[in-house]
Amino acid sequence: MAHVGPTDVWSHVAAVFSEADETVRFYLDGVETGVRTAKAIPVADRGEAAIGTEVQHHIAGTMYYWPGYIQYISLFNRVLTPAELVADQYAEKDGPI
Asked: CA 21, CA 62: separation in Å to the nearest integer?
């Protein structure tokens, strides 16, 4: 997803990995925007996850940061339906913002 949504507007972005289908589906505000083949979760082999940044593993060790704000993150251990993604988008979240 090169372009995530309009600038200066909060958007709900989701990626749903299905091991059974070997796919990752991308959603923007509850609408599917793309699907890619994936046999495993991309970070599972390294045991690490980066949210809001991507480390380029080469000699320079460059880091790229998300050019915006991330307000909440939800992680699930199962595939969510599009309806569940929308419900999560509007669900009240606990903790500081």
From this structure: 33
Residue 25, helix vs strand vs coil: strand
Tell how far CA 71 is from the center of its chain. 13
Please work out, in degrees rounded to the nearest 5, the angle formed at the alpha carbon of residue 65 by the alpha carbons of 27 and 35.
25
pLDDT digits (tens, 9 = 90+) for 35-88: 999 887 655 555 566 677 766 655 566 667 777 777 888 888 888 898 998 898
Q: Nearest Cα to 16, choosing from 3, 4, 28?
A: 28
Q: What CA–CA distance (Å, rounded) separates 40 from 82?
A: 21
From 74, 75, 78, select the one nearest 90 (Cα to Cα): 74
Contact yes or no for 23/38 (Cβ under 8 A): yes
Instruction: Report d(CA 58, CA 35) in Å as an integer.
Output: 28
Cα separation, 90 vs 79, in Å, equals 18
Q: What is the pTM of this model?
A: 0.67
